[in-house]
Every structure is written in structure tokens, then in C-alpha cells.
Amino acid sequence: xxxxxxxxxxxxxxxxxxxxxxxxxxxxxxxxxxxxxxxxxxxxxxxxxxxxxxxxxxxxxxxxxxxxxxxxxxxxxxxxxxxxxxxxxxxxxxxxxxxxxxxxxxxxxxxxxxxxxxxxxxxxxxxxxxxxxxxxxxxxxxxxxxxxxxxxxxxxxxxxxxxxxxxxx
Length: 169
Prior knowledge:
The protein is α+β, with helices and mostly antiparallel strands. The chain has helices spanning 20-27, 83-90, 100-115, 135-141, 152-168; strands at residues 3-5, 8-10, 46-49, 52-55, 68-70.
């Protein structure tokens, strides 16, 4: 079975040692997913696997046989940018932009986790069925994605406008 990347089937690489990140960047020329630390510490390589956020630098491509991978290039619809992409623009959620694709993919995955009621380290009620995405909660949940330019306030504002407000409704 092939991997499905942004809705299109892709053959697995011949070498089982190829990381998902290298398949995306070098094999498929999807340069939106960034190679930052290549050790899983910065989050620049975050993509969605069946809707869950993963660090593609730490994953082998063969692990995702038959699964759906979404990169930043696959988030835009026919109507234009994904709402979170537009919110990053509106709230200056980037400076150099290097971390932005990973931040956006991570935020989408984070929202799905919160909708499922998964608590974080700062969640007050671990048994609550619904997570309230306060600023502190968002900062904790996004702490695996680093921005060296210091655009964290704009990033959290963008996520608050889209993801957190959507969950409050």
C-alpha cells in the first residue's frame, strides 16, 4: 500500500531507513515541512498523520504505509488558505517563517487532541470531558514547537482566534 500524502498516493521509498521528513522534502519536493534540529526537539518538521501531529524527522516513512499524511501544502483548500494560515498572517504569527508550517500543523493536531479531551500538564481537571484552551493551556500544548524569532505571542493569538474560539462554540 502507498502512503497518502496530501490526498495523493505515494510509493514507499526503496530504503526502509528513509525518514518521513526526507521522503517529503527530498523525495516529493514538499519543502514546507522543515528540517530544523533533526532530533525531534524543535517541531519544525511537524506534520499530521491521520490527523495526529507527529515529528516527521523521528519517523520512518515505511511506518506510514497506508496512512494519510498532511503537510502544510495540503492544508489549503480550493477557497484559499486554511483559517489558521490566515490567522498567522493577521496576527503576525511569524517573522522568518521557518517554524510556521510545523506550528500550524501542530496547532491543528493539538486542537483535535483537546476536542478528544486529552489533558496537558497544566490542565486543572484531568477527568474533564472538555478542555478549555486558555492561553496557559495553549502555551503548554504548543511548547514542543519552537520559534527562535520570538513570535510566540502572535502564534498563540492566531491559535486563539481560530482553534480556541472554535472549541468554545
